[in-house]
Write a structure and sequence with these properties.
1 helix; Jelly Rolls; 526 residues
Length: 526
Amino acid sequence: MICLYMTLLAVSAAPGSATFKNPILPGFHPDPSICRVGDDYYLVTSSFEYFPGVPIFHSKDLVHWRQIGYCLTRKTQLPLHRMRASGGIYAPTIRHHNGTFYMITTNVGGGGHFYVTAVDPAGPWSDPIWIKGDEGIDPSLFFDDDGKVYYTREGGGERGGIFQAEIDIATGRLLSRPRLIWHGTGGVWPEGPHLYKINGRYYLMIAEGGTSYDHMVTVARSDSPWGPFESNPKNPILTHKHLPDHPIQALGHADMVETPDGWWLVCLGIRPQGGRYHHIGRETFLAPVRFEDGWPVVNRNGTMDLVMQAPRLPTHVWPQPPARDEFQADSLAVCWNFLRNPYDGDWSLTERPGFLRLNGSAVRLTDQDSPAFVGRRQTAFHCTASARLEFDPNGENEEAGLVVRANDKNHYQIGITLRQSRRQVFLRRVIKGKIVEPVAYKDIQPGPVILSVKAFPLYYEFSFTQSETTESLGDAPTRDLSVEAIGFSDGMCFTGVYIGMYATGNGHRCTRPADFDWFEYITGKE
């Protein structure tokens, strides 16, 4: 079963090696939060408008990770109906206390702050416990030694600061009004707070500068969880904003964990390509932390690299999954996602056993809705995604194929449709909600077609294969799917590229299904 552990293993060092490769979770895995339970480490990341929500990962050495599930797998936990692109789930925090896991997050545009609990991190997780009537984003939980639990979050706004309240963890009721505990160091958007107690002192770590090229991690400390907080005179403790030519940029939004090898930190970062353009998303990076004069120091000098010294923990490598998903299981593998809450009947693994069937609805890929779509993250700059499709459209509105998606208004499609009464394969580029002409079309014969997308750092190549003959349809730049190119014309873009299978009737329900026999995802050498 493909993607059971994803293809994240490829980025890590070989067993026994003294080094590892960053990022530890490549592709769209932003806002990481981590906790430790014995010799096991668990990590969650943001998921925005994708469903299921909040992927959860397991590691024993901080370098090799496998995805074990999602925290939010039910529509009742994660309402995303008609959620705007880059709305939904922001910045989860995971904590473990007295045998229970807690994951707290914000559904932006879908109800606000809530948390869920589980005994087994692989699930099932509870129904949401909502924190009613509060604002801001990026909530975190801290369980103090005296039994009190603190809820800390971003204060709302470019200069909002960090706010905190005591919380009744059984009910979600705030026991005090959230109050400002630290403004930060003066950078914009102080956010992503986490509170720790280390050697009797309280440390408050946050992100500042906005989640872009000025991003940074800062820290303050106090003898009380309420402050006053003293700012580290050497802030920021992690940033690359002064290193514009470094291959890693936008480092920030960090969380720390204590291990037998001391403290380590996970954070988000990006790897721009072809200038300041990043398209596969904000990724998860790892760095060591040591304390000097009572202050955390990240990787000796407040920076990090693509290759670093590995933690001195027993190496634990997970099994490699097959590259091809044959859709033989009774449920989708954990790497697959839907756009928002999927509609009943839009997809099936049982209507035609051994195939993923998509029943195209009236919803278009450009709609702020849930089309018949099943996709996965692009996790490498060099990769090839292919699918064998059986689809016989009955009208010129009907189409099915592969989509390389940044968001609703920016994506590339290679698919099958009916045009001038002829079955054709096409390549279409949609940028800022408009089709970029010309659209490439080629006639095809009856029968199945293999559609392929080959990714490179600066462009995608699109081709199709029928009767063992492969033909190119053209290429398209990665830059046009980057966060920087998309800009703010259609709202913020906090996600990375997905490669997925889709079907649509473009305003009408398809009269014939699209049957995907298999999907293959192969990563190349980075």
